[in-house]
Design a protein that fits this description.
The structure holds 2 protein chains of 2 kinds. By secondary structure, chain A is α/β, with parallel strands linked by helices. Chain A has helices at residues 9-19, 34-45, 59-71, 82-88, 92-97, 140-155, 184-190, 214-246, 271-284, 302-308, 330-339, 362-374; strands at residues 3-8, 24-26, 52-54, 76-80, 103-108, 133-136, 163-168, 176-181, 253-256, 263-267, 289-294, 296-298, 314-319, 347-352, 381-382. Chain A folds into 2 domains: 3-246, Rossmann fold; 253-382, Rossmann fold (3-Layer(aba) Sandwich). Chain A is built from 12 helices and 15 strands. In chain A, helix 1 (9-19) packs parallel to helix 6 (140-155) and helix 9 (271-284) crosses helix 12 (362-374). Chain B has 2 helices and 4 strands. Chain B has a two-stranded antiparallel sheet. A two-stranded antiparallel sheet of chain B has the order 2-3. The chains are: A alpha/beta, B alpha+beta.
Chain lengths: 387, 97
């Protein structure tokens, strides 16, 4: 039944990855991901698991090494953050195009400049269109669980795509939380050894990552998109199986007191916990407020999201990244586009919050809801910024 | 049987676009890209093989008498052979449509 532990979440992430019997890790340390890199290195070099830990010279190299190892049939893990993820950017669409089941932990942190090492989602949003499956963890337990689930999802023959597990930097990575660490037997039962679709081997030569002429490029892109869109079904199936073994339930979109709500807060990542406290507070004064938490960002769970917010008048969307000069933050823009063709659609109030580690408290969510109720125009606004 | 150059529909694209028959690039004839073709004057040729060495397409071959010729199925007409040929035995001739 797993072991109850009190542990720093980054350390727990490394322990969870070790339970997955990885073959190769190529991790370049960067704040606030460093504890994952360091602890995974300890696990490998203490001989606790039979794996190679590659000390690469940059994140560009770490993701490239992961691609190569994965192509050779290995189970591969990497982790990064912020500038490291930006440096990986060039390789990310290649990994997904080659359908390599690499798993990566992203300790979300602001992107420079100015230099800032604290938490927001500005590092992962520029990677949105890279063709990776993207999960957002809300607490330490979800970090452990999603890290293990990711290998199963990524390697599933109906998926064969890389997975990013987004872990809010510091807010999650550096918290010591009570969690349940699964046993090796449980993980082995859930996660069989990888059976690759094809591997690079001299006895059976094949070519991966080939050149595409204009005559075939669009067909390749469509095939990749269909694979990513289709992955949602498999992810949900795997989550159901997870719930059976581990007793913890996962949904692409989770709701909290949403059924009768007139106004719903929409969050991704660790801020969901603070928002749920704010919902409880507001419910005390009989305000019909609820919460929607997006766990699966790519592929976006369109149907599940529409069902989750059905009947609601206003969505107060928290965006922890900016699209400078755009129509709104990435989450709100996505949500607005879902409802364009719907007859009954909620008003979407878009709030840019919690950038670069700016604290978002319960009071801030209450202020956000109050502002969303009054807001009449369609523009996005910064919340918690000094005017 | 006529061999197809690439999958017809997106459904036929292998996962990751993996090519299970490596080396099949030779099935793709690039000669149609050519605007000019190299023509050898064997009276000037000294059989040094510079054209053979420099051809980026590796489409220049040696015949039984030691002279060189381009495989026009692949020659893209880049003219590097003519440029490198120091006895100037190769001239580039316009392809006629």
């Amino acid at each position: 039944m797993g072991k109850r532990i009190g542990m720093e979440v980054a350390i727990a992430a490394a322990e969870a990855v070790a339970l997955c019997r990885i073959d190769v890790a190529a991790v370049y340390p960067i704040t606030p991901q460093s504890h994952i890199a360091e602890h995974l290195s300890d696990i490998v070099h203490d001989g606790r698991i039979d794996a190679e830990f590659l000390t690469v010279e940059s994140e560009h190299s770490s993701i490239s090494a992961c691609a190569g190892a994965s192509a050779a049939g290995a189970r591969v893990y990497t982790a990064t953050s912020s500038q490291g993820l930006m440096l990986m950017h060039e390789i990310l669409p290649i990994v997904s195009a080659m359908r390599l089941p690499v798993v990566m932990g992203v300790a979300n942190r602001a992107v420079s400049g100015p230099l800032n090492i604290w938490n927001d989602h500005t590092d992962v949003m520029p990677q949105r269109d890279c063709g990776w499956i993207q999960l957002f963890a809300e607490n330490g337990q979800e970090v452990i669980d999603m890290s293990i689930q990711s290998f199963r999802i990524a390697e599933h023959p109906d998926v064969m795509l890389p997975v990013m597990v987004n872990i809010d930097g510091f807010q999650l990575t550096h918290m010591i939380e009570p969690m349940i660490m699964p046993t090796q037997e449980e993980v082995d039962r859930f996660l069989p050894p990888r059976v690759p679709f094809a591997t690079l081997h001299p006895d059976n030569p094949l070519s991966m990552g080939c050149f595409n002429m204009p005559d075939i490029f669009m067909e390749t892109m469509k095939a990749k998109d269909v694979a990513l869109q289709g992955a949602k079904k498999t992810i949900i199936k795997i989550w159901k199986e997870w719930a059976k073994i581990f007793g913890r339930d996962y949904q692409p979109v989770e709701t909290y007191k949403a059924k009768d709500a007139d106004i719903l807060i929409v969050t991704m990542g660790s801020m969901g916990e603070t928002a749920s406290v704010a919902v409880d507070e507001m419910r005390k004064s009989r305000k019909k407020v609820g919460l929607v938490k997006i766990k699966l960002w790519r592929p976006f769970p369109v149907e599940e999201f529409k069902v989750a917010v059905r009947g609601c008048k206003t969505l107060a969307v928290m965006d922890r990244a900016l699209s400078f000069g755009g129509a709104g933050g990435p989450v709100a823009t996505e949500i607005k586009s879902l409802f364009y063709h719907e007859k009954e659609r909620p008003r979407v109030a878009d709030f840019i919050m919690g950038l670069g580690g700016r604290d978002v408290r319960v009071e801030d969510f209450i202020a956000m809801v109050e502002r969303a109720e009054k807001k009449e125009d369609d523009t996005y606004e910064f919340l918690g910024v000094r005017e | 049987m006529k061999q197809r150059k690439w999958p017809e529909t997106w459904r036929e694209v292998t996962p990751g676009c993996i090519v299970f028959t490596p080396g099949n690039a030779s099935e793709y004839k690039t000669g149609s890209w050519r605007a000019q073709r190299p023509v050898w004057d064997n009276k000037k040729c000294i059989k040094c093989g510079m054209c053979y060495l420099f051809c980026p397409e590796a489409c220049i071959h040696e015949d039984e008498n030691g002279y060189f010729y381009a495989d026009l199925d692949y020659c893209k007409g880049c003219g590097i052979c003519a440029h490198e040929c120091w006895p100037q035995a190769i001239s580039m001739i316009e392809e006629e449509v």
